[in-house]
Amino acid sequence: MNQLNSIILEGNVVRKAEFSEPKTGFLVCRFPLAVNRKTKTPEGETKEEVSYFDVETYGEMAESCYKWCDRGQGVRVVGRLKQSRWEENNKKHSKIFVIAEHVEYKFSKPKPEEKAPEVVQAEATADAATEPAKEEATTAEAVF
């Protein structure tokens, strides 16, 4: 039986993405993503709940994310969850984060006198989801 591990998030980048090239040799970009959810209380008041997710990208997509992921930038991330486990000072730790397989940048609508910005997308190949060093796809297209 196949198991499903897939996630889609839309939100805003919390702070400028961090870029690194670890000893393994492939490029890595990490950024925190804030996702807002509005709900109504039984009294009819609107309540906003914010969740924060750490997102990680690799290869060419990491370069694209580093270039475009500034604080406040709207993004849509499609990817999978990954759990990291470690032990430190005889205490077990665990962290769950998102491995992005596709990132789409959302730009605000331009004023009528401004030219419409392009929507830039970065997408991982199927193999890149399991082997970050082999990732190769970055696309861009204009949206009006």
Entry keywords:
144 residues; 7% helix; five-stranded mixed barrel; single chain; mainly beta; OB fold (Dihydrolipoamide Acetyltransferase, E2P); globular; 8 strands
Main beta-sheet strand count, sense and barrel state: 5 strands, mixed, barrel
User: H/E series, N to C?
Assistant: EEEEHEEEE
**Can you tell me the CATH topology?**
OB fold (Dihydrolipoamide Acetyltransferase, E2P)
Helix/strand class: mainly beta
Indicate the CATH architecture. Beta Barrel
- Compute the separation of the termini in Å: 42 Å
Model regions low in confidence, pLDDT < 50 over at least 5 residues: 126-144
Q: Looking across the biggest beta sheet, what order are the strands in?
A: 1-3-4-6-5
Question: What is the number of beta strands?
Answer: 8
Count of individual helical segments: 1
Strand content: over 45%
Q: What count of domains describes the coordinates?
A: 1
Rg of Cα set:
17 Å
CATH superfamily: Nucleic acid-binding proteins
Shape descriptor: globular
**Helical amount among residues, as a percent range?**
under 10%
Average pLDDT across residues? 81
> What is the top-level CATH class?
Mainly Beta
